[in-house]
Write the structure tokens for this entry.
Amino acid sequence: MKYRPLSISGAIEVTPQKFGDQRGTFLEIFKQETFNGVAGRTLDLAQVNCSVSAAGVIRGVHFADVPPGQAKYVTCISGAVLDVVVDLRVGSPTFGRWDSVLLDDTHRRAVFIEEGLGHAFMSLEDDSTVVYLCSTGYNPDREHEIHPFDADLAIEWPYTTRLGTPVTHQLSTKDSCAPTLEQAQQSGLLPTYTHK
């Protein structure tokens, strides 16, 4: 596996080695021992989620209260998504900035997102299937969101599918009513940056 730190501390792109022959392809999506050496921590697995999205669907920006927070290891097993990590940690040198990785069924990359970071993705084709390994279980009382079209974040969401077909963005009711980063900060919802 190849690991590349993203521009936001605590987010890592993972590119697995693929083994293929006439039968198909095999790859290790996640290997704890190797991950521990790169990330300097373990990823305790408490829940695995799977979502299937139509082209243009945007899910997020989501985050959980810290502590305990929710670290995620995310990959796209079918289709393609633009995966976005947002630094929501007040006091972080990259607070309010974002980075992205194309996750698809060709390159088979994954993204690790540590506690305190926001996560979102946009589906770039119909039936894109995303799997998340999560360090803690879902708790609706501790989960929050930031509006994905917040002007201060200025996330560059695509307006076309992976093949270039124009697409209409679709949000859940919860995400479309989400506060801006500034509103969430003023409400005291955001985590605080802890220098490591």
User: Anything to note?
Assistant: The radius of gyration is 16 Å. The mean pLDDT is 96. The helical segments are 32-39, 173-176, 181-186. The chain has one domain: 2-186.
